[in-house]
UniProtKB/TrEMBL annotation:
GO terms for biological process: methylation; RNA processing. PANTHER family: RRNA METHYLTRANSFERASE 3, RRNA METHYLTRANSFERASE 3, MITOCHONDRIAL. One of its GO terms (molecular function) is RNA binding. InterPro entries: Alpha/beta_knot_MTases, MRM3-like_sub_bind, Ribosomal_eL30-like_sf, rRNA_Methyltransferase, SpoU_MeTrfase, tRNA_m1G_MTases_N. Pfam families: MRM3-like_sub_bind, SpoU_methylase. The keyword Amino-acid biosynthesis does not apply. It comes from Lawsonibacter faecis. Keywords: Methyltransferase, Transferase. Residues 108-246 form the tRNA/rRNA methyltransferase SpoU type domain. This is RNA methyltransferase. The keyword Membrane does not apply. It comes from the Bacteria. Belongs to the class IV-like SAM-binding methyltransferase superfamily. RNA methyltransferase TrmH family.
Length: 253
């Protein structure tokens, strides 16, 4: 195992840049993962891991072919993006965020301008758990491979694809696959989410602040609502997505 002690070391500097800069992550095609559990999830999914960085005395469970570096505990702490570092960081090759030419699944979420990385990661994790086939990120969502997003996915980022594209491109892909697009919004055609046919569908989840954009709503074949008390106006985006995903899953049970 290599040993690095200098905060000026190129690898240390690279990790800091990847943690702090979306543009640097895209330029390098790399992102940072943290913690032994996330490392195990990445290895299990066959992700391309370039280097594992561990605190003194920590021996990560990974193949010997992967570059392994030991650093002082205080140095690792300075590289961590959490309040309680878990002793292991790793650099991972970013999956391709370009959508495929054809969608082969039947259930998708379209995330419309979602800004909170924690919400994005939680939705990603829930979509993986409930059998969705992928996420389509439109209108400048949070970075799917920021440290906070990746951490919130609990490994789903390594198993379930997420793609960034324009709203028109997302609609064209769904149309070509014969998948109707719905939105979680209120208008004349709104159905209770429990009554909508979502066994083969895509559903738009809007941003935390403004909800679903007018452009996205105009493209939807229908809308669904989640029943709740009248005194409550809305749900957190991740919670709303969880309810929708459960209804999608329930249709096959």
């Amino acid at each position: 195992m290599e040993r690095i002690t200098s905060r000026q070391n190129p690898l240390v500097q690279q990790i800091r840049k990847l943690n702090n800069s979306r543009s640097h992550r895209r330029t390098e095609g790399l992102f940072v993962g943290e913690g032994p559990k996330l490392l195990a999830e990445a290895l299990g999914a066959g992700m391309d891991i370039g280097v594992v960085v561990a605190a003194e005395g920590v021996r990560p469970d990974c193949p010997p072919a992967i570059r392994q570096v030991e650093v002082p505990e205080d140095l690792l702490k300075s590289l961590s993006t959490t309040e309680t570092p878990q002793g292991v960081l790793f650099l991972c090759r970013m999956p391709d965020l370009t959508p495929p030419d054809k969608l082969t699944g039947g259930r998708y979420l379209v995330l419309d301008g979602l800004q909170d990385p924690g919400n994005l990661g939680t939705i990603w994790r829930t979509a993986d758990a409930f059998g969705a086939d992928g996420l389509l990120l439109v209108n400048s969502c949070a970075d799917p491979f920021s440290p906070k997003t990746v951490r919130a996915t609990m490994g789903a980022a390594f198993r379930l694809p997420a793609w960034e594209c324009g709203l028109g491109e997302a609609k064209a892909l769904l149309d070509a696959a014969g998948i109707p697009l719905y939105a979680t919004a209120l208008r004349d055609d709104t159905l209770d989410v429990r009554e909508a046919e979502l066994s083969r569908a895509a559903v738009v989840i809007g941003s935390e602040g403004r909800g679903i954009s007018r452009e996205a709503l105009a493209l939807c074949a229908g809308t669904v609502k989640i029943p709740m008390r009248e005194r409550c106006e809305s749900l957190n985006a991740a919670v709303a997505a969880g309810v929708v995903l459960w209804e999608m899953k329930r249709s096959e049970m």
